Structures are given as structure tokens and as C-alpha cells.
Amino acid sequence: MANDFARYREVFFAEAEEHLQELNEGLLTLEKDPTAQDAINTVFRAAHTIKGMAATMGFQTITALTHRLEDVLDRVRSGVLTVTPELSDLLFRAVDRLEEVLSVTQASDEPPVASLEDILPELSRWAEMNKVPEGIQTVEPFATDLSAFEARVIQEAEPQGFSAFFVTIYLAPDCVMKSVRAFLVFKKLEGKGEVLRAEPPVEDLEEEKFGDSFRLLVLTRETPDALEALLNGVSDVARVEIRPVALKTSAEARTPDAMPSRRANGKEKQRHLSTQTVRIDIQRLDSLMNLVGELVITKTRLEQLLSGSSSEVEETLKALTRVAGGLQDAVMKARMVPLAQVFSRFPRMVRDLARELGRQVEFVIEGEDTELDRSVIDEIGDPLVHLLRNAVDHGIEPPAVRERRGKEATGHVRLSACYEGNHVLIAVEDDGEGIDCQAVLAKAEERGLITAQEAKALSEKEIYRLLFMPGFSTAARITDVSGRGVGLDVVQSKIESLGGSIEVTSRPGQGTRFAIRLPLTLAIIQALLIKCGNETYALPLENVEEIQVASTSDLKKVRGRDVLLLRGEVVPLVNLGTLLGGETAERDEGGEIPVVVVRGAERAGLVVDGLVGQREIVIKSLGRFLANVPGIAGATILGDGRVVLILDTDGVLGLAENQMDRRRIAS
Amino acid sequence: MQRKERQLVVFTLGREEYGVDILQVQEIKRLTEITRVPNAPAFVEGVINLRGNIIPVIDLHKRFGLGAFEPGPESRIVIVTVHDITLGIMVDSVSEVLTLEETAISPPPPLVAGIDTNFLEGIGRLDDRLLILLDMDRILGLEEVAAAQEFQNKVAEAGAGR
User: Fold this and answer.
1) Which of A312-326, A333-347, A475-489 has the lowest mean pLDDT?
2) ipTM for the assembly
């Protein structure tokens, strides 16, 4: 029982978060266009749903807050209130408080209702504003237009003695189980005629997503009086309003007015979709992925064991390979999540930030339906927050400055995502100040990251790379927004830990663009297996540029360092065996040396003892205990059950660099 | 959570008998091929494949400074889980599972067989046998891991933005 409750709790918070998102998005739309009916409906429904769920869970504070919020939104919906900037701010504040309360409740216990004193009275004040005295309904919330289809049906039915009425049913305000009343109304009408349309749509009526009233378009042979008497017989029906439908001329009736029906269609589709999704704990997907990994490994082993068997065995193995591959794809797809999940919280953040900093920013999101592995999605949020904050804070200039520079007062920030082969490219662009290379250099010198000598020799690209060095900050002033907490170096290391890379390009005075490249999925990669002494290691194939077989005479020494001359280019060499401290095979003078040219942040040649071949491997973590071993990205299990370590290219090159430094100091 | 009795898995390292709480022990495995992890702490022998999971294996001989581990026919890997971290310990042999009264356990004396007593939880007495109870947290240096993590976080926080 307690367990069940815990599970419902989890579901509640997961769903509440989604509805919060809807609230935020809807309010943003309303802020731009206060008359956007869809957005009004969305936010109202979101608030209403959270209220209902919270009440079921017994969360009183959340219920109280969403109830007031719903009241205000209801006034907005019925047109009594319009979304002025003032109201919009209040609504945003209410949603923020709701988010806070939700997160506090999720972490421990629900705060008392009294903790909402800062917001509840204000919401109530708005809810009471312009309130229409009870009993006099001046607002007609329902459309009176007929769709072409309805008009035709009515027209055809009229000769047979049918007439059409708009029947508005007002339920008693204290009525419980409103959906049941609505159902009874339908039941009563069933024998007497046909309901052509319901507002709100029948699904909403069933789910009790309506206020105290709803309206039906009824085609019947009954008189209005008989109809009224019939419906007043349903308990809790306070009042019935019946209006005959005036059929317009046929020409007008034919005008395409499919809006209501199209909306109903859309709704049906949505409903359909929602029943076909299953919420699943990410851990279950992870374990499914692990099992599929095992399957792939076992399959590879079977293939090795049975190689050279009869053609029947081979056929079966091929079939197994196909099935395993299909399963792998399917599980992989199940783990894919659209970036919208992360992106959707940014418009709100950028808006708040721009306000806080006095910038005018138009924020555009593109490609939010691009999908990435769930594990990447979870991690990518923070780096993006940082880049977007940078764009608004450091990129976009204040409106006055922009105008002085002959730019539009409103700056543009664009967040986009798209597929690029096996990768996803996420870009954060702004049309602001751009990066001042001289300022970057001056800062780097001041911080002692480079010497004045070095500064002169740096290319533009290398200068940009300075931005990602630990302890670098060009923000002249420390604002509340950036210039504290994590720096770009942390952004970079996070993205690298996801197997991705980040690049920056900039044009002074015109803007900056950060491009993040991420692998579609992390779990299974192509790798090159190499030998180092008697040990085997895996190198991610995406870091491998080429494989060279060099003879000892190709090797040169430049400033005490082994290098390989490759088509006229000098490639520094790293002896992998020495670096990893294992045994290395004896090398004959003049013999052949396999060199794997890799490219991470730098280009280098890894001297290995042998090449085993290319394999598809399943990446496994070494666990928390060995999480930070330098140069090792993880491990994989080969077909024969052996564990092979996966090398982290940049980590290995970093290790080599350290070793060189140590040797230099020692000598 | 004080229990009156404790069940211990008893194993030997060199000539001494040691015990770990049975609740921490997942299983006992024969020696298998261990993949060395370069640049890992010295007492980490490597990693093994435990039914598809990668599990680090540590050498208590090295951790305790007891000389080199000599694999023999009785050698085993005891798989333990401490704080959600699963790992293997190489031992010379596993002898039995026994129940010890809580009262039979005394705090560690200052010096036991040359082992840093920081690694010990206590000494268990059973008839004329002495069992050394290990404090797995300390042995794994999990405190150090935690401290290092904290330090790293602080460094990250201290790093300024762009």
C-alpha cells in the first residue's frame, strides 16, 4: 500500500512537471498574444489538472494554489480579464511558486498553506475583479457559428420536421460529479433527437474538464418547452437555455468554417496518442539495454565458436544476428527522447533573464523534435543553460548600445538542433557583440594562462580555445547571471564526457556561435581493438583518423620527442605501452611499427604492438569506484567474456603530455 | 542498528583469519581473468566480468602491505557490496560462514599483524580463534573518494564563468 502510494507520488510529480511546462509555455504565448485562445485553454487545463491530481494525493497547499490560479485563469478564459503585463507577471510568479512548492514537496514534505501568503491573496484579488454578479451570465462563451457539415445536416433534416437548437445547460455550482450529470443529459436526449455538437467536446465532458455549463447543438422534433422540461428533470441542472438555430442562407452555410470540427479532430488525435504511450522508469530501459548488450556479446561469441559449421548453423546465426540487430535498434529508439524536453524550459529562462538584464531578446528554437539518447538529454541541460545565459548576458548588447551600433534594438538568440550523420548538432547563436580576441588574449595573459610571447603566435581558433581553459573569465563585471558558478571549461568537460565536442566561432560586432556535436547514442560504438604487449584495448573508431605502418627509420626525434613524418606533417608519437605501464613487445631495429593516428583535441600517433580489428562494442562503466581513472573511458566485454578497457583519446594524450612535462623537469 | 548476533564470511589472507559481514557479501567466485586498469590505485588489481557487469577487484595483500598475492587452488574472489559499490576482494581461501555474538567482538588493539588498525572494525573471538573484522568503507578508501569528490566540486564552484 505504502509502496503503491510512493509510486503514485512519483507519477504525480512527473505529470505535474509536464503540466508546469505547459503552464509556462502557455503563459509565454499569452504574454505575446493575450487573445490566443488555445494558450488560454492550455494553461487553464494544466492548472485544473494539477489541482485535481494534487487533491487526490492530499496535497493541500498545491491544491490551494492551483485552485486560485485556476480561478484567475477561468476569468481570463471567459474574457472577463485580459492578460496585461501586470497580470502576466503575477501568473508567472504563481507558476514559479507552484514549482517551488512542488519541488519542496517532492524532496520532503509539503509546506503549509500559510507559506503561500505572498501569492494567494493577490490571486484572489484578481479572481474577484470584474466579477459578474452571480446568476447573470453576460458572457456568451460559446460560438454560434455552424460548420458547413452541421448546416447541411440541419438543412436536410428540416423537411422531416426536425429543428435545431443550441441547448445550454447550467449545472448547480455545488454539483459534484458533473460528468455524470452531463452523461444523464445525453441519455435523456438520446431518444428525442441527435446531438450534433458538444461544447466543450464530449471527451472533456467525460473527464469533467468544464466549468458549470456546457452547450449542445441538438437536432430534434420536440418543442423547446418539452426539451426544457425534459432536461430540467435531471438533478443538479440549475437552468436550461434553449435557443433555436437560425439557419443561414445556403451560400453562407457552405463557407468553410471547419474550425470547431477540426479542433475536435485534433483533440481526438491527441487523446489517441496519449493512450498509446507508456511511462517507464529509465532504469528499466537501462537494464533492457544491458541485456541487449549481453545478447550482442553472446551472439558474437556464438559466431566465433561455430565458425565454419554447416550452412544451416550459419543461416540460423544470420537470423539471430538480424533479430539481435533489430532488437538493439528498437531498444535504442525507445531510449530516444526529443530535445524539446530540455529546450522547452528555455524560453521562460531567456525571457526572465532578458528582463532582469534590460535586454530585448527574441528567442527562437529550431529542431526541438531532434531526438537524442535519454542519458544525453539528462546531461545536456546545464551546459545549454550556461551557453544561453552567456548569449544573453555577454552576447546581446543593451538596446541603446545596439541602436548606436546601427543594429535592431532587439537582439536575436537562436537555439537549434539537427542531425548530422551519426551526430546531433546543437547550436546556440546570438547576433550580439561577438568575442573580442584582444580582450581574450589580455585576460589570458593576466591570468597567467599564456605568455605575451605565446599570445602573438596564436591563431583565432586557438584564442577561442582559451575561453574553455579552467579559470578563465572575460566578464569585466560579475553579474548575477554568469560570471559565477561554472565556467565554459565545465561546459566543455561535460560535453566531452558525453562523447561530444564544442566549437565556437565569432565575428566581432556581429555575433557568436557555439556548436555542440553529440553522438546519437552512447551505449554501442564502433571501436578499433589494439594490442599493447599482451593486453588488448579498444579505441573509439570516431577518434581514429588512419592507421599507418611505419618503419623505425620513419621515426624522428624533434626536441627530444618522438614524431612521425606523415606526408610532410609532423605527428607527435605516444608509446601506448609505456604510457599505460604494461609490458611491451621487443621491437626489432628496422621492423614495422603500427601507428594509429588519432584525433581528439589534438592529433597524435599511438604506437601500438598490434592491431586486432574493428568491433562493435557495448560501453560499460567501470563504476563509481574507478570513475576517475585517467585515460580510460570505460570497459567492454568481448565475445570470449574477456574485459577490455576503452581508451579515452583525449585522456590518453593528456597523460602523455603530463609524462613529457615530468621528464622535462627531471632532466 | 545493533544486532545481537552477526553472521560473518570468514576468509584467510596469509596466516590470519578475517571476517566480513555476510550482508555485504554477494557471492564467492573462483579466480578468473583480471584485466589490469592502468593508472588505477595500486591496490586495485583490475576488473572482471561478473555476468556482464564490470566489477573492480582489489588486492588486500597490497592494501595491507602483506606482500604479493600468490594465486593458489584455494584462492577466491569475494564479491561484496558496500554503499552501492560492488567489488571483488582477492583472498587466499574462504573457510566458512559463522555466527558471532556481538559481545564477542572487541575494538581493535593498536597493532594487529602489522595492519593499519584504521582498516579494522574490531576483533572477534570464537573459542580460541581470533577473527579480524574488516571495515570495508575504510579499506576501499571510500572516505577518500568522497573527500576527493567534494574537493573537485569546490574547485569547480570556485572556477569563474566566462
Assistant:
1) A475-489
2) 0.80
Q: How far is A633 from chain B (nearest CA, A)?
A: 11
Is A390 in contact with B161 (Cβ distance < 8 A)?
yes
Q: What is the pLDDT of residue A665?
A: 65
Active-site residue, selected from the candidate residues A22, A25, A31, A70: A70
Strand arrangement of the beta sheet that strand A423-430 belongs to? A361-366, A411-420, A423-430, A511-519, A501-507
* Known active-site residue A208: no
Q: Which residues of chain A have a CB within 8 Å of the CB of B160?
A: 471-473, 475, 478, 483-484, 487
Pairing relationship of beta strands A213-220 and A524-532 according to DSSP bridges: unpaired
Give A242's pLDDT tier (boundaries 50, 70, 90). Answer: confident
Q: Report yes or no: A629 at the B interface, CB cutoff 8 Å.
A: yes
Q: Angle between the A374-390 and A346-357 helix axes, to the nearest 10 degrees?
A: 20
User: Are A308 and A361 members of one domain?
Assistant: no
Any catalytic annotation for residue A390?
A: yes
Residues lower than pLDDT 50 in chain B: 1, 148, 151, 155-162
pLDDT given at position B106: 84
Domain spanning B5-158, CATH architecture: Beta Barrel (2.40)
CA gap A314, A287 in Å, rounded: 29
Parse chain B into domains and list their residue ranges.
5-158
Radius of gyration of chain B (CA): 17
Instruction: Give yes or no for A471 touching B (CB within 8 A).
Output: yes
Q: Which three cell numbers stand for residue B29?
A: 567466485
Domain-located, residue A81: yes
Coil, helix or strand for A399? helix
Q: State the Cα–Cα distance between residues B92 and A374, nearest whole angstrom.
A: 43
Q: With CA atoms as reference, report the closest residue to B79 among B129, B123, B28.
A: B28
Q: Which residue has the cell 605575451?
A: A452
Confidence of residue A312 (pLDDT cuts 50, 70, 90): confident
Q: Are A574 and A602 in contact (CB under 8 A)?
A: no
Residue where the block lists cell 560579475:
A478
Q: Is residue A422 part of a domain?
A: yes
Does A394 participate in catalysis according to the annotation? Answer: no
Q: Bridge partners of A519?
A: A423
Instruction: Note the pLDDT of residue A588.
Output: 57
Domain count along chain A: 5
